Amino acid sequence: GVSGRNRDRGLANVSGIVILSDFETGQPLAMLDAATLTAVRTAATSLCAAEHLARKDARIFGLIGTGVQAHAHLDLFHQIFQDLAEVRILGGHKGCDDVCRHAADLGLTTVVCDHPQDVVEHSDIIISSVPATADTAFLDATRLPRGSFVSAVDLGRSWLPDTIPAFDLIATDDHANSAEQQAQGIMPPTGRAVADLSELAEGRHPGRTGPDQKTAFIFPGFALSDLALATHYLEAARRVEIGVTIAF
Predict the structure, then answer these.
(1) pLDDT tens for residues 123-146?
(2) What's the chain's average pLDDT?
(3) Above 80 in pLDDT, residue 13?
(4) What CA–CA distance (Å, rounded) separates 182 from 58?
(5) Is 242 exposed, middle or buried (0-12, 13-18, 19+ CB in 10 A)?
(6) Which parts of the chain fold into alpha helices (H)?
(7) For 154-167, what is each residue's pLDDT tens digit?
C-alpha cells in the first residue's frame, strides 16, 4: 500500500508484506517487510543505471525529496561513487534534517537549498523522489550542468515535460513496462527510452559515451527486482541465522 499522507500520521508512505514462496511446491518460505525491499531495490536499480550513465568522478549529489528514497540512495551511491563529497538538498520539507544528519554521518558536506535550481544547476548526480501527492512539475532539465545524471524515482513527474528533450540520453528499467505505464497515464509521456537496464548491462547499448552528456534514468520499477532482492535477503538471513521460524 502507498499513501502520500502517511508522513503526516507519523507512518511510512509505503507499507506491505512480501511472501516468498517455493517455486516447485508453492509453499511459503518467508515473509519480509515490503517497505524495506522497496527502498533498497529502488536505490539499487538507480545505482545499476548510474554505473552506466553517470560520470565516475561525480562529486556533488543532489536530492529533490527527503523521504525514505533519499536515505536509501545516499547509502548505496556513497559506496560506489568514491569521489562524492557534497550533498545538496532541497530544503523546506519534512525529513530534511534527518537526511542532513545521514549525509554528515557518511562524511559528506551538506548544503540545504531554498530553491530547486540551486540543486539542479550544481549537482553531478540528482535523485528526484517527489511524492505523487505533489502534482505540479517544477524541475527544469535545461538548467542541468553538462555531464549530469538524473535518476527520476518519481517517474519523472517532477520534471517539466517541455524540458525533457534537454537530456541527451534517457534510459528506463524495461521498455515494455515503461510503455504500458505511459499508456495507462501512470508515468508521464517521456517517449521511448533509448535503452533499458538489460541493454546497458549486456553491453547492447554503450550508455554514456561522452563526459558532457546529460543523461536520465526515468523508470517505474518492476516486481522482478523485488523477487531478486527477497531471495537475496532470505539467503542472507539463513547464513547469519536471523529471523523467526513459523511452523504451519
Answers:
(1) 999 999 998 777 789 999 999 999
(2) 93
(3) no
(4) 31
(5) exposed
(6) 34-53, 68-80, 96-105, 116-120, 175-183, 197-201, 223-240
(7) 999 999 999 999 99
What's 14's DSSP letter? B
> In the beta sheet, which residues pair with residue 62?
88, 126
- Give the β-pairing of 28-33 and 17-21: antiparallel
Per-residue confidence (pLDDT) for residue 88, from 0 to 100: 98
| CA-wise closest residue to 46 among 69, 16, 65 | 69
CB 142, CB 163: distance < 8 Å: yes
Share of the chain above pLDDT 90, in %: 81
Q: Which grid cell is 141?
A: 532539465
Nearest-5° angle of CA 136, CA 142, CA 147? 125
Quote the DSSP letter at residue 220: -
What does the pLDDT read at residue 248? 64
Over residues 73-95, mean pLDDT: 96
HEC readout, 130-196: CCCCCCCCCECHHHCCCCCEEEECCCCCCECHHHHHHCCEEEECCHHHHHHHHHCCCCCCCCCCCEE
* 71 grid coordinates: 536515505
- Nearest 5°: the CA angle 149, 229, 85 is 35
Distance separating alpha carbons of residues 207 and 215, to the nearest angstrom: 9
